[in-house]
Amino acid sequence: MDTVVNLTDQNGNTALHYAVSHENYDVVSVLLDSKVSKVDEMNKAGYSAVMLGALCEIKNETEAAIIQRLFQVGNVNAKAVKHAQTALMLAASHGRIETTNLLLNSGADVNIQDVDGSTALMCAAEHGQKEIVKILLKRSNIDASLTDCDNQTALSIAVENQHRDIGVLIYAHLNFSRLEQNENSVAV
Q1: Which parts are the ANK repeats (predicted)?
Q2: Which sign, positive or negative, has the C-alpha torsion 128, 130, 132, 133?
Q3: How far apart are CA 19 and CA 137, in angstroms?
Q4: What is the CATH number of domain 111-188?
């Protein structure tokens, strides 16, 4: 069964790649139940089923539970082959609120950077994904001051892409974080 479940087509896609990308959640569930499906297998484009799952549009709790299982079984911090983007970066760029939350609940690292130095926050800021930015900024371990290879921050990327409302959110977060740090250092 292992061989059949993990057969690939000419593009390196397995049955799980297809089931996830076509949002066939019943098949995804069966493949996960088999316990032989290689969840982290990359196709020739460099994406795993977990990364494809980040792009799913989840419509109900059953679908959310299946994708949550996928994220828990797979490596949510794996990087795509070509640009080293993570599933969280893909979800953030495409405005997938539900999968963003599921990824974060499954241990996705908000501060991982791709080959260009971009983070999930930078991706969301660039693409005008305000709700995703709010979700990411609520994470206690987020470093909103990270810079990419062009020395840009999420704030400068938001402003450069005409997303001033997102820029204001990031600016407020950065300044509130500094204020909290100063208060904590004075209290010590």
Answers
A1: 11-33, 83-115, 116-140
A2: positive
A3: 32
A4: 1.25.40.20
Contact between 142 and 169 (Cβ < 8 Å) = no
Residue 159 Cα to chain centre, angstroms: 22
User: Could you tell me where in the chain the CATH 1.25.40.20 domains are found?
Assistant: 1-109, 111-188
**Within 10 A of 15 (CB to CB), how many other CB atoms are there?**
21
Rounded Cα–Cα distance for residues 92 and 140 (Å): 18
The CATH architecture to which 1-109 belongs is: Alpha Horseshoe (1.25)
Are 61 and 68 spatial neighbours (Cβ–Cβ below 8 Å)?
no
Burial of 46 per CB tally in 10 Å (0-12, 13-18, 19+): middle
